[in-house]
Amino acid sequence: MTTSAADKAAPLVALTDARMQFGAVRALDGVSLEIRAGECLGLVGHNGAGKSTLVNVVNAGLTPTGGSVSFPASGAPSARGAGVRSVFQELSLCPNLTVAENLKIAHEGLKGLRWRGAARAEIRESLDRVFPGHGIDADAEVDTLSIAQRQMVEIAIGFAPRGQAAQLVILDEPTSSLDGGIAQQLLTHVRRFCEAGGAVIFISHMLGEIFEVASRVIVMKDGKVVADRPAGEFTRKGLVDAMGHVAPEGTGAAAAERRIGVEVVRTPEGLTAREGEIVGLSGLAGHGQAEALARLYLDTASAWRRPGAARMVFVAGDRGRDGVLPLWSILRNVSVSILPEIARRGLLDRTREAAVAKDWKRRIGIRTDDVANPILSLSGGNQQKVLFARALASAAPVVVMDDPMRGVDVGTKQDVYAMIRAEAAKGRTFLWYSTETEEVRQCDRVFVFRDGAISAELTGADITEERILEASFEMQDAG
Amino acid sequence: MNFLARHRIVLPIVSLAVLLAATFWMQPRAMSYFGVNLLFNLAVPIALATIAQMLIIMVNDIDLSTGAFVSLAACVTATLLNDAPLFGALVLAGLVLAYAVLGAVIHALALPAIVVTLGMSFVWGGLALVLLPSPGGASPGWIRTLMTVKPPLVPMAVVAAILIAAVTHLLVIRSGIGTMLRGVGGNARAVARSGGSVMRLKALAYGLAGLFNVLAGMALVGLTTSADANIALRYTLLSIAGVILGGGEFTGGKVSPTGAVIGALTLTLAASFLSFLRLSPDWQIGAQGAILILVLTARLLFTRRSGPA
Amino acid sequence: MSALIARPWIWSWLAAALAFALTVSLTGGRGAGELAYAALSFGAFAAIVGMGQMLVITLGPGNVDLSIPATMTLAGTLALKAMGSDPGTAAMGLAIALAVGLGVGLANFALIYLLRLPPIIATLAASLIYQSLAIWSNRGLRIKPPEGLADFSTGRTLAVPNVAWVGLAIAVVVWVVLERSTWGRWLMATGQNMRAARLAGVPVQRVRFATYLAVAVLAGLTGYLLASFSGGAALNMGQEYLLMSIAVVVIGGSSIAGGYSNVPGVWGAALFMFLVVSMLNSYGAPAGLRLVLTGTIIIGIVIAASTRRVRT
Questions:
Q1: Of A395, A53, A45, A400, nearest to A228 (Cα)?
Q2: Which one of B11, B32, B138, B282 has the fewest beta carbons within 10 angstroms of its own beta carbon?
Q3: Could A323 and C192 be called an inter-chain contact, meaning their C-beta atoms sit closer than 8 Å?
Q4: pLDDT at residue C144 above 80?
Q5: CATH top class, domain C2-311
């Protein structure tokens, strides 16, 4: 609910019938939008709906092919001049520089002999304001920080004054690598920032967060804004319906009808999994779950031996780093895990390869007209589906998943849950690290990690948000 | 992250110290003003060329034309700069500018630096040959004087090395523009996104590299008093090895100017050390390779514990 | 037609054809046969080492073999020394040259894998040792190849030089391996993103190992052929192949960043590199100018290829 004062003021950003065309694809199809000071605009929509394009048009990363973008409140000709800041989903820090030096990169005005001290003070102040008690050293090189800390630095740089106060901060999935407590700090700061007259565009697939911070929500679908109302007028179900998907139904379906077999995985830290079981790894982000899975996989699949029949496959969550082979087609990206199985005397059976890829395109619903298209022509969520297809196409009995739903929309998630349950019913074992409770509820058994070790093992009805949180935090407050 | 991994400068210093100690042990007479001067005599041009290579590696490229370009700069110094100082200086400035343009073109067209510099090495080498078809020329007197000056207490080569390290440290590590340049190596997109012109920065990095290469050529002529078109061909490999010995990495903008200078000193010393060993000439080159491998192995053993690379 | 233009290898072939036409036009068509013959002979050596270098470069950023010249010299020297101009020793000489290649490949990869050295540094440092070995074993002697071998390496079959047939056969094998085999897919996956490839089940170290062996073996073979072709091994016989091997890979349209390679392009580029020098020679360019023009042309082709890539 915007205040009447804000209504009167000129908008910070005004889009008029903005259009963006990439080849035959209409990524943005006539969007008109105004954002005023004091507003926190929640932006939702599934993958490929046009959220990123919209954001890039607002921050002048892209010039729209039609319509206009203006900044009436400041009258500035450019997004930078109008105080528009973006914090992107993929990290955009220089890992070889220190935290303070990264601020310098973002703040050109920082000059003179004493720039270093000024940069240090500014980033410290911003970090303290957004994430009190962050414990990040301004002189630490970024590549020595954890992913969550890097994201915190990035957000702090976004909110830092940098010579001219931030007017509009765009946060694209800002909490994806943050754990609950830190994410809450951010949400609090966003609310405070907007109350003080700033504006925020908040993109998140966690609807709870949207409801918590947004004063207004817009829903995008197929490059258009399909709903634009004050947040109070939406319900969770209404929002999901507007995005064009069935609401995720309640809690995870239990493994009741599945037969769980013998133990097939056991790691030194005590992680175990049995045949046909879906095992979750949970806890706060960055507490050793991803490392445990990577170690498990790398120890099993040799970098030297030819995998006659792979025992284990891996689904990456960090697509760019761990998953996608960017020069290749969708087809080759899918088949890379099954090459030995479709080869005779080292030579590939290409008909069989094409058949497998086509089959998976249909089964997992990869949105493309031809699997020969480059993988990079797909949206992030669809690339993720390719990685699922790669893993499931192989006959490996154990599937290891490292937070594989990052950037995947609600509808796809439901499909993938169903597929995982079906595969588990056939006797496959899944090890699934997730930061989201909804996903963890899909599991038969959950290991909660804390400080790199397992702090609890939960099964069946015990898998609740409460129990997981209990095991994630040290419960020994003074008093 | 252990101590050595965090302070990557320690190992280059230790390598140099160990090699120096071994040299002094083999040849105690080297432990004097003149001895040290002789040992590090040729280090100055190599250090300058290594800094140039480091500037290119810093922005995630590699320069395979260093040797040919330093040779050309040496030829210009020994001919044009000696005969017609003003014109010679203009030509050298033109060469620096050419490097800057090269950097801009490589970035603008997204060309592979390794190939462009490879092609340029033909061009530089050809120009050097046109300028000086047979060895000859002469060093301008002032360069000769500068390179052979005898400061009190510490030999010229050592003073120059310290000076080069200090200046480049200030330029690359401490200054704002140096930070931007390293940022290009670390994450060029981040720099571009916050409004920096990556093309201009890359041109600057290449231009600076050209400048240091020109200085290397001039210093070399000051030491050898004459030039030829192939005088510095081995500098390509030496400069790359120097950067790596100095703790620099090929990608990600992780470089150390001080380390690069120390790496260059180590390489120069290795050559002297081998001649003291009275090794059969057949094995001189091979032993250099072996030393290089040895030093890098040591670095690996000491920094490995920080986990997989 | 547009599909043909889009092929990255077409440029090196067009450039080679142009250089050929320009040279021949100077003499009014006389000597065309001889020129083609010479280009195929000399081009074959560049093509064979170029294909080795291409495999390594395909492994991804930072992967390159700078020990090719030293390996060629060492293999040529040791093989010719062992054969000692005696007839009937050609097979033994070949075996020695290939064994040298295997040994070098093993040593290179040991440095890269066990000591985790960047390949540029590892192969560079190791090449100094190989060079020393060659100097030590050769001692400046020039031993002639056995007569039969010399005849083979300078001879022709069906009007095409024998060495070109060898180069062609290797090209076919490399092409099939890259485009149609599991191993080729593994190689290209590794080159695009080694970590992702590893996590997709590719035995990346095995792939790298095999690749470094392959490039060294191809260099050894080339050293053997070149030494036989030119009537004996010389200590500097590999020298020009350092830049050459990298140049033909890139001019041939392979990606210098790895993950994508192009076999026909390497052959076209190898022919071009020879033809452009003979073109400049026949136009009477002095040595310096010849170098300048060669460099300019290499860069020109790289720019031409890249601007096409950007547009498409």
A1: A45
A2: B32
A3: no
A4: yes
A5: mainly alpha
Residue-wise pLDDT for A116-150, tens only, equals: 888 999 999 999 999 998 888 999 888 888 888 88
Set of chain B residues whose Cβ sits within 8 Å of the Cβ of C140? none
Q: Would A110 be classed as within a structural domain?
A: yes
Q: Please, how many CA atoms are within 13 Å of residue C71, restricted to the half-sphere of its CB?
A: 37
Contact indicator for B229, B57 with CB cutoff of 8 Å:
no
Q: What is the complex's ipTM, to 2 decimals?
A: 0.85
* A333 and A207 fall within a common domain: no
Rounded Cα gap, residues C194 and C110, in angstroms: 18
At residue C111, what are phi and psi to the nearest 5 degrees? -65, -40
Contact with chain A for residue C236, Cβ under 8 A: no
Q: Provide the number of structural domains found in chain A.
A: 3
Same domain as A390, residue A410: no
- Return the pLDDT at B261: 95
Per-residue burial over A358-393, b = 16 or more CB atoms within 10 Å of its CB, e = otherwise: eebbeebebebeebeeebeebbbbbbbbbbbbbbbb
CB–CB contact B122 C306 (8 Å) = no
Which tens digit of pLDDT belongs to each residue from B26-70?
888 888 888 888 888 889 999 999 999 999 999 988 898 999 999
Q: The domain containing residue A41 runs over which residues?
A: 4-243
Q: How confident is the model at residue C5 (pLDDT cuts 50, 70, 90)?
A: low
Q: Report chain A residues whose CB lies below 8 A from the CB of C189.
A: 325, 328, 336
pLDDT tens track for A142-198: 888 888 888 899 999 989 888 788 889 999 888 877 877 888 999 999 999 999 988
Interface test with B, best of A62, A90, A98, A105 (most B CBs within 10 A): A105
Is C200's Cβ below 8 Å from some Cβ in A? yes
Contact B121 C310 (CB under 8 A): no
Among the three residues A205, A223, A243, which one is the final residue of a domain in this structure? A243
- Give me the residue from C181, C195, C203 closest to A321, CB to CB: C195
CB contact under 8 A, C121 and B130: no
CATH number of the structural domain spanning residue B146: 1.10.3470
**Could you tell me if A330 and A373 are in contact, meaning their C-beta atoms sit under 8 angstroms apart?**
yes
Which of C261, C272, C298 is the best mutation test for B, with the most CBs of B within 10 A? C298
> Does the reported pTM lie above 0.80?
no
Same domain flag for A205 and A57: yes
Helices (H), A394-450: 410-425, 437-440
Q: Which of C199, C207, C212, C213 is the best mutation test for A, with the most CBs of A within 10 A?
A: C199
Q: Are residues A113 and A225 in the same domain?
A: yes
The CATH number of the domain holding residue A22 is 3.40.50.300
List b or e across A311-347, with b for residues whose CB sees 16 or more CB atoms inside 10 angstroms. bbbbbbbbbeebbbbebbbbbbbbbbbbbbbbbeeee
The alpha carbon of residue C152 is apart from the nearest alpha carbon of chain B, in Å, by 33
Query: What part of B 150-209 touches C (C-beta under 8 Å)?
Result: none
Domain match, A193 and A65 both:
yes
Mean pLDDT, range B109-137, rounded to an integer: 89
- Whether C181 and A343 lie within 8 Å, measured CB to CB: yes
Over the stretch A375-420, which tens digit does the pLDDT of each residue have?
Answer: 888 877 788 888 989 998 888 888 999 888 876 777 778 888 888 8
Interface check C288 vs A, CB under 8 A:
no
The nearest CA of chain B is from the CA of C296 a distance in Å of: 7
Any C CB within 8 A of A345 CB: no
Q: Which helix H or strand E contains A226, and what residues bound it?
A: strand A224-230
